[in-house]
Design brief:
transport, two-stranded antiparallel sheet, iron, Alpha-Beta Plaits, alpha+beta, binds iron/sulfur cluster, iron-sulfur, 3 helices
Length: 81
């Protein structure tokens, strides 16, 4: 999972910080910092954070789920399942 926050839209409401404090945090009074590629264990929290953002500034990219499907297929085709 990758995250992009459109900082031109972010109004520092802090909803994402409450929803996923391990991923989003404030540096100083209003500067939002975040992990671009959070661990999978925070996936649900990040989705809540994106849903909670009042200005829809958080964009999620779940493309890294694809390789899991590919490797699963490869396992089946390779007879390792
Ligand atoms: S919830 Fe949205 S507007 Fe608020 S700090 Fe997070 S990204 Fe910025």
């Amino acid at each position: 999972m990758r995250i992009v926050v459109d900082l031109t839209r972010c109004q520092s409401y802090g909803q994402c910080v409450f929803a996923a404090p391990s991923v989003f945090r404030f540096h100083g009074e209003e500067a939002l910092e975040y992990d671009y590629t959070p661990d999978d264990q925070f996936r649900e929290q990040v989705r809540w954070a994106a849903a909670a953002c009042p200005v829809h500034a958080i964009i999620l990219d779940d493309q890294d789920e694809q390789p899991k499907h590919i490797s699963h297929k490869e396992n089946i085709m390779g007879g390792k399942a």
